[in-house]
Amino acid sequence: MLVYILKRLGTGVITIWFIATATFTGMHMVPGDPLTTERGMTDNIRENLERQYGLDKPVIEQYFLYMGNMLQGDFGLSFTEENRRVNDIIRESFPVSATLGVLSLFFATMGGILWGALTAIYRNRLPDIIIMFLVVLGISVPSFVLAGLSQFLILNLNQTMGRSILPVAGWGGFEYMLIPSLVLGLSTMAYLTRLMRSSMLEIANSDFIRTAKSKGLSTQRIFISHQLRNAILPVITVLGPSIAIITTGSFVVEIVFAIPGLGRYFVQAVAQLDYTVIMGTTVFFGSFLVLMVILVDIIYGFIDPRIRVQAAK
Amino acid sequence: MLMTNRILVFLASTLLFLLSFSAYPQVTEVSGVNPETKTIQLALDQEPPQLDYMKATDAVSFFITEHLQEGLIRKNARNQLSPAVALRWEMTGTSVTFWLRENARWSDGEIITAHDFVYAWRRVVNPATASQYVSIMYSIKNAEAINNGQAPLESLGVRALDDFTLQVELESPTGYFLELMAFLLFYPAREDFTEAQDGRFGADVENMLFSGPFILTEWVHGASLRMEKNPMYWNKDSIEINAINIPYITQDGAARFNVYKDGKTALEGGLVGLTAEELEGALNERYRLRSVSDGSVFYLGFNHSDGHITANKNFRKAIQATFDSVELVNKVLGIASYVPGKSLFPIYMNGVENKFRQEYIVPEVELNLERAREYLELARQELGLETFPPISFLIDEGSTGPIVSQYFQSFLKQNLGLDILIDVQTFKLRLQKTDVGDFDLVLAGWSPDYEDPFTFGELFASWNVNNDGFYKSDEYDSLVRLVQSTSNQQIRMDAMGEMQDLIIEDVVILPLYERYITYVQDPRLSGVLFTVTGGSPIFTYARIQEEQ
């Protein structure tokens, strides 16, 4: 098991190095640089700036410098938020995104498992049809529509009631997180519902369920300890990458609800060609994703003994 | 079931863990304007990128700094230059003397002295500081040479004769020099404090020292800021607002407007203006809209360098004779508050005694399709072409670019049979392509650095780095040099009047529109000052009335 984990971590490091190198190359191939602004600069002012940011060195030297700093855990200074270290940006905004993300994942998993199981039980009957219709809606309506719409509804609610029921935007206590996390988690919930439904249906026809039935176990008992436990496996597989994606923030939800999370930096940094922030956020996200996938594989082993046996060989 | 339980416990505990360390200070007040506490609340479109004001270049940093710091001179409530740290001043030729008030203090209680200005200005021109807007200081003696690394820092033309007398030597007479004193690059900084910050000056609340009407008391990066009245400010009794709260930072204008509608902010649209969709919504919901010039002029830039068809004057004249800026603004853009472009010099600029545009009337350009076709035929012969190849029109995705370029595309095809290829780029790439001259036509804009027509006039000097189209004319260059050589207002303005004529006659550019921003404001709030330069909107002179 330990060898397996070490091996996975080793390939993980190579993956991250590859991600970093590819991002670095791609980023420098885009014409323009972070110092390009609307106001023209004399060559001299530009040289002063380039010297300060180390952009006067050859790209290959910048690459090795950057990699060296990164190995020491230093992502450098942001170009757009000029006095802030990228490490600080990640350290301060990731917890915000993560809080929102975990809350929304909580909604998504609970909802997904519940709705999925329900649709499987009521297969092809009215509850199934209604839920599956909502699921298609949940998957296909983009989050900026959903976010804008829900904000509009909160605003109208507040105006109708004549006082603040829910905050329209901003960040603070739980009341600020409720709606954004629901919006953020909805498409994952819809996806998990579908996954859960098909997985439940597949298991309903399997041999061991038939055996359980023939042993005379109660429907409830079969559902909970045989059907649900086995059907939940694919959900967990999907959950790993989902955690990485959702907890690192969503651009749309964060800007609509004015949430100071990490998500907005992914998009803004690229638009501004903020080299250090692009690298920092990408490497951070990449490492997090790789780690989550490894973690899920390990947890998987605990839930499904078959995988553990294979890994031990 | 056991497994689901475990997962549940895991999720719940992670959630609690994360919630515990996202303990965010909740600075949100109940409403946008609070008449009891005299507090207002605002939303920003982005986090201030640079509060080390000696290096700042963007509108949000300007806005925050305007409230936190103060220079020798400031704009008063009527938008006129008035004494700030300096009590009085005298300008003779290339020498300016400022006498400082003795009761202006830093927020830690120390007196602001002339040495603080000497230190700050030297820091700006020091090449190691790499201040991007430093060229605005080049009118001071030796500033450019120092910034180019060719002269020692001490040779900068600014001296403290004593603690309260500051003397400035200029390279040449600079008619607008006093205007510059209200610009943040000329604000003071105290050496002992600045140097002690280890390169982090302006990075956080504890790395800042304040000379202005407000102090920054809270700054959660990317999330919120709070400014409170500065108890050490020499003129604090004239300030009514006790605190400015900024609990919302988002680039989504619709979201900010929703926050305003929810009564959580006092003013919206003051920095970037409401978008066209928001305007429509606001009109339907009967919000009172206000609009004010943001100072900028937008124009169609021609590439004047060799190898571009747009370098041909008759070709440019053909386009000029068919273009109607009134139609563009009223029918195509449909933004009633914009002013159709007639000149490079906007209508609000002052001339010698009156408005510049009243003293120097813009030559009338006749819209004449026949003439336009004659010009085009002349251009075709001069260029030795059978037919005109497609012309590229460089824009970025934002703002009015797509609408304006499509308008040109359609009317130039219809009237002159010209083909326009619209080159849509991201903002950064548009700047990059403009810099290297990879365009025939470009949608460009300029907003003033100081309130004098010369901030626009100097644009098309052949050596100006912002002369995007690489226009070069000896006549224009000599007019620019003339303005730079004197502080006699009559001579300066006459020269700029000639520039105005030359720009039309030579079709250096085609003025499109003067931009206005539209905003909404809580009716209990008054006295918000909008300026075309610097940190507008300014809340320093604002007043709050009780419920009406």
From TrEMBL, chain A:
Pfam families assigned to the protein according to its UniProt record, in alphabetical order: BPD_transp_1, BPD_transp_1_N
Domain ABC transmembrane type-1: 94-300
Membrane topology, as annotated: Multi-pass membrane protein
Regions crossing the membrane: 12-30, 100-122, 129-154, 174-192, 231-257, 277-303
Matching SUPFAM superfamilies: MetI-like
GO biological process: transmembrane transport
Assigned GO CC terms: plasma membrane
Family: Belongs to the binding-protein-dependent transport system permease family.
Protein name: Peptide ABC transporter permease
Organism: SAR86 cluster bacterium
Biological classification of the source: Bacteria, Pseudomonadati, Pseudomonadota, Gammaproteobacteria, SAR86 cluster
Automatic annotation (TrEMBL), chain B:
Superkingdom, natural source: Bacteria
Location (main, coarse): other
Keywords assigned: Signal, Transport
Signal sequence extent: 1-25
Location(s) in or outside the cell: Cell envelope
Pfam annotation, one family: SBP_bac_5
Key word Transit peptide present: no
GO cellular component: ATP-binding cassette (ABC) transporter complex; outer membrane-bounded periplasmic space
GO molecular function, one term: peptide transmembrane transporter activity
Name of the protein described by the UniProt record: Solute-binding protein family 5 domain-containing protein
Gene3D superfamilies named among the record's database cross-references: Dipeptide-binding Protein, Domain 1, Dipeptide-binding Protein, Domain 3, Periplasmic binding protein-like II
One record GO biological process: peptide transport
Domain called Solute-binding protein family: residue spans: 81-465
Family to which this protein belongs: Belongs to the bacterial solute-binding protein 5 family.
